[in-house]
Design goal:
This protein has a single domain, classed as Rossmann fold, CATH 3.40.50. 54% of the residues lie in helices and 11% in strands. The protein contains seven helices and five strands; from the N terminus they run βααβααβααβαβ. Strands 1-2-3 form a three-stranded parallel sheet. A two-stranded parallel sheet has the order 4-5. β4, α7 and β5 form a beta-alpha-beta unit. α1 packs across α3. The longest helix is centred in the N-terminal third of the chain and has 15 residues.
């Protein structure tokens, strides 16, 4: 069955970005070329990006700035659509700029883009770095 849309999983990007399995990196590079040529469209999502960020930082020990560079490259890949790409872009920028976990940065970007300005969290440290968000800690929130 022929289709023109494919979902790209995390391991494809990791092989390509790290080249730790060269034959797989080369195979995915060919897929990227075909997608850029318009043979089909690749899609991925924020969960894949989050897994890439986590793996590059925790397993490959890349700095947030090095990870940011790679995520920006993914976001700018011709023929690849990252669902919620605007929020992923904001999150990867804030991840470095505000020195917060990528997931917290993504959640802040998602909240703001969807009109949320208040959060309940015990993570005051990270979410207080977002001027657009009011942090509310359970137990400290006024009862009413």
């Amino acid at each position: 069955m022929k289709t023109d849309r494919f979902f790209a999983d995390t391991n494809l990007f990791l092989r390509y970005l790290t080249n730790d399995v060269p034959e797989q990196a080369d195979a995915f590079e060919q897929v990227l070329r075909q997608s850029a040529a318009g043979d089909f469209t690749l899609f991925t999502n924020s969960m894949v990006i989050a897994e890439i960020v986590w793996t590059l930082e925790s397993y490959y020990h890349l700095s947030p700035a090095e990870v940011q560079e790679r995520i920006l490259a993914i976001l700018n890949t011709p023929g690849l659509e990252v669902v919620d790409g605007d929020q992923v872009l904001q999150a990867i920028l804030w991840h470095v700029e505000k020195s917060v976990d990528f997931i917290d940065a993504y959640n802040a970007a998602w909240m703001i883009s969807h009109g949320f300005r208040n959060i309940f969290t015990f993570d005051r440290k990270h979410f207080s770095r977002f001027d657009e968000i009011e942090v509310n800690v359970p137990g400290e929130f006024p009862a009413g």
